[in-house]
Amino acid sequence: MNIRFYNGKILCTKENHKFEVIEGELWVKGNKIIYVGDGGDLEEVYKKQKEPCILWDREIDAKGYVIMPGFKNAHTHSAMTFLRSFADDLPLKEWLYNQIFPREEKLMPGDIYHLCKLGIMEYLTSGITANFDMYLNPIEIARASADCGFRTVQTSGLNDFTRSLSLLEEDYHIVNEMSELTGFLLGFHGEYTTGRELMEGVAKLSEKLKSPVWFHNSETKKEVEECRKRYGMTPTQITEALGMYAFGGGGYHCIFFDDRDFEIYRKRGLTAVTNPSSNLKLASGIAPTARFLEEGISVAIGTDGPASNNCLDMFREMFLVTGLAKVREGDAAIVPAEEVLYMATAGGARAMQLSDCDSLAEGKLADLILIDLNQPNMQPENDFVKNIVYSGSKSNVALTMVNGRILYEKGEFFIGAESGEVYAKANEIIERMK
Amino acid sequence: MNIRFYNGKILCTKENHKFEVIEGELWVKGNKIIYVGDGGDLEEVYKKQKEPCILWDREIDAKGYVIMPGFKNAHTHSAMTFLRSFADDLPLKEWLYNQIFPREEKLMPGDIYHLCKLGIMEYLTSGITANFDMYLNPIEIARASADCGFRTVQTSGLNDFTRSLSLLEEDYHIVNEMSELTGFLLGFHGEYTTGRELMEGVAKLSEKLKSPVWFHNSETKKEVEECRKRYGMTPTQITEALGMYAFGGGGYHCIFFDDRDFEIYRKRGLTAVTNPSSNLKLASGIAPTARFLEEGISVAIGTDGPASNNCLDMFREMFLVTGLAKVREGDAAIVPAEEVLYMATAGGARAMQLSDCDSLAEGKLADLILIDLNQPNMQPENDFVKNIVYSGSKSNVALTMVNGRILYEKGEFFIGAESGEVYAKANEIIERMK
Questions:
Q1: A313–B284: do the CB atoms touch at under 8 Å?
Q2: Residues B56 and B6: beta-carbon distance below 8 Å
Q3: Which of residues 317-336 of A touch B (CB under 8 A)?
Q4: Under the phi-then-psi rule, with left for phi > 0, alpha for psi from -120 to 50, and beta for the rest, what region is B188?
Q5: Under CATH, which number does the domain A71-355 receive?
Q6: Option in B83, B320, B380 nearest A84 (CB)
Q7: Which of A311, A329, A332 sits opposite B281 (nearest CB)?
């Protein structure tokens, strides 16, 4: 499909985590952006395309909309949609061991495929164009994304109780080769569920495959204390000692860091993915986001899964990233809006190795969204970026495009499945387990 | 208008801050609810109405929707919409003195009227059916609400620099008598802006008018410390000592409370209105919500104004009330979803003396909203209340009715003003001040 957006305010990502608004046109040909500009230099574009003109399948008047890069949800467990609002307001251990694990055991083949589709639909309503997923069946997850036309990078939830190193290697290849929309980076569940030997195996595999490594890192105080008891080191330090970061990577949550942890993240160019809603709801803590930024460490934002959040909404997370940083440090001036928008777009893309769809520019993959400004929460138009970060909502997302295809527009989904069927399937799966 | 909702899931407020779902019908005649039930006892309803039948102006199939009481936004400064995203990420003092106050001085007659309308539109998109407002011109605020068909209770921002006791008394009468939609309760800005003599005057006036008293209370640590220096007491204690609570009332924010403050609130039956987004964004702190509940103190929820939040969204606030309480106390089990939904509806109504529209029942005023369940964030349907509190969004609000009139439905406003004009006016006002 060739799609022309005109009359739009196009949010372009600049150096130093800044954004610039260009008023004009954005052209999509196939799955790529071929032009972003004010429309004054179109001769050049046609020459480059080696075509006298482009036949448009659709021309979209974007007057009153901001066209911006899609959000990247840098940590989630999409298929946990079935457990949304099923068990909440419980102490963490009771929630996990008595409610979550027993239900996960009852999942049947195909369930994760369907449950992922529900998660993908929710991402689309929130302007999320790619997710970084970790759950039980990487093949089903990848198949759901490829079938919907959605972009998913996965890592593994490998631990002492599920999967294995050889399965991990197999997943890596199958998922990376399945589709241009599906990727896989090495990872494991967390230090507290994974013995030293298995972690050493992951480190070796990362050298062999030249892959970054990801895991849940320092989410709770207890996790870090127990790791210190075991190794005399934090999770960041033991994984560094085991040689896991030769090809980068990072951690999810990253709340309880000491000076040495920050140093390792800085030195290795790792990314801290922050998950503020989940950290509140599970009473885990508030991440030291301001310190990460001060040290020049890359930060990305994730919703975590719908069982712990319970909502897959980047607008909620963006407000929390800055709001929680401000209250944690007692300083209303820190972690400003532009920095947060950068994390939610280019920061996530960096974590997921999606540099080809991290911003709106010629040659980039067309992963973009339209934000409706003609709603009360976007008025007056004092500052688009601040309006989006501080005041934005799912209701402002008018269109979500992934890889050049419109998957969501004005409340309708175009993912090759009927929404009613996806909802029915999710209800059927959880009903079976009650 | 007579409006019949059928096939709906109706959320009814029960004792002990619980909710019950009734599947069936809700009838609105004029501005009142005349029936809520499963439709099995309609003979009785007709008999009570002394009519053989009701001629419906509209019959709405509510299949796939939850019908619930509208949210009550228990603390806000609606007209500050013009300053949304105008100045953020600044230290509090610089923000207030260099950015906010100089612009407020430039407001011209009529501006507040128009700016309030923009706030009201945003409330409607978030399912808010009444607000508790405090700002510079109570008459313009009341006029905006009455003209839109929206319900607003106001208090005064009286302090040593603006308004006076005689103006306060005048406002009280004019606003309370203006319309069935507009009310006024006594109040003043805060202890830190209001001298002892003026506070004594408010106390006397409250006795004369038998009105509760409201003010910004213990929002920042500094405010409480300075009050202690002045009076050897906290703001709660000095206002109690001045005899302000003979007819109830309460405070906005209520973050830094000591044991004696809790005792006064409990003994006097006062309400603590919590404003979590604003408290994060201005780096003020996290309110002791769990303690208020433990002590049986009534809690309500407010968005605060759009200059400090920047968003007028009860869904964001509800998630934050529970999430921040959980992380503050390190306990994922506290301040459960039902309790939060109660605060956001009946709790707010109690604060605003709106007991006639606090819930859905026969004889109550028809202030209600429809929540669309056929969206991914509301699926599967494990628990409606938890879905609304933990996962709900403005995008789920399909219809907002105030006093029996539909003011918002599926993205369209019915407030006697064109949305484009309201946006243009707000932009014009702030442009004038740049």
A1: no
A2: no
A3: 319-320, 322-324, 326-327, 329-336
A4: beta
A5: 3.20.20.140
A6: B380
A7: A332
- Residues A76, A253: Cα–Cα separation, whole Å: 11
How many whole angstroms separate alpha carbon A33 and alpha carbon A365? 6
User: CB–CB of B313 and A393 under 8 A?
Assistant: yes
φ, ψ for residue B404 (rounded to 5)? 85, -5
Burial class (CB in 10 A: 0-12, 13-18, 19+), A224: buried
Could you tell me the fold of the domain covering A2-69+356-413? Urease, subunit C; domain 1 (2.30.40)
Residue range(s) in chain B whose domain bears CATH number 3.20.20.140: 71-355
Chain B residues with CB under 8 Å of A121 CB are 376
CA atoms within 13 A on the CB side of B428: 13
Q: Tens digits of per-residue pLDDT, B168-191? A: 999 999 999 999 999 999 999 999
Chain-chain contact of A310 with B426 (C-beta, under 8 angstroms): no
Choose among A348, A389, A355, A354: nearest CA to A371.
Answer: A389
| Phi, psi angles (nearest 5°) of residue B93 | -65, -45
Of all helices (H) and strands (E), which one includes residue A32?
Answer: strand A32-37
Pick from A367, A281, A364, A353: which is nearest to A324 by CA?
A281
A434, pLDDT greater than 90: no
* Neighboring chain B residues of A334 at a CB cutoff of 8 Å: 89
Is residue A53 packed enough to be buried (19+ CB in 10 Å), middle (13-18) or exposed (0-12)? Answer: exposed
pTM over cut 0.90 = yes
pLDDT band per the 50, 70, 90 thresholds, residue A42: confident
Q: Where are the CATH 2.30.40.10 domain residues in chain A? A: 2-69+356-413
* Residues B348, A269: Cα–Cα separation, whole Å: 48
- Give yes or no for A26 touching B (CB within 8 A): no
Q: How far apart are CA A114 and CA A422, in angstroms?
A: 7
Which A residues 72-111 touch B at CB under 8 Å?
A: 81-86, 88-92, 95
**Taking a contact as any Cβ pair under 8 Å apart, which residues of chain A between 326 and 385 contact chain B?**
326-327, 329-337, 374-377, 379-383
* CA A111/CA A428 separation, integer angstroms: 10
Structure tokens at B171: 């406002």
Residue-wise pLDDT for B52-84, tens only, equals 778 899 999 999 999 999 999 999 999 999 999
Of A326, A375, A380, the CB nearest to B281: A326
> What is the amino acid identity at position A211?
S
